[in-house]
Specification:
By secondary structure, this protein is mostly helical. Helices cover 72% and strands 0% of the residues. The chain has two helices and no strands. The longest helix has 30 residues.
């Protein structure tokens, strides 16, 4: 159980550091004159059956690991 807690702490730290780094990179880009072109944004793709199956299988897998 302690090793799972340690793994959770490591993953949380990784995500937080990744988010903070991406924010620093974005601010550096803005400082150098970067502008987002709104016409180049792509539309959000629709959810397919394969995507739903993949997401549900990941959730079930994590739930099984949590039970064990």
């Amino acid at each position: 159980m302690q090793s799972l807690r340690d793994l959770g702490n490591i993953l949380a730290t990784l995500f937080i550091r990744t988010y903070e780094r991406s924010e620093r990179v974005y601010l550096a880009m803005k400082a150098r004159g970067f502008q987002v072109d709104t016409s180049s944004k792509l539309s959000i793709p629709s959810m397919r059956v394969v995507d739903v199956f993949f997401a549900s299988s990941i959730i079930v897998t994590f739930a099984l690991f949590a039970i064990l």
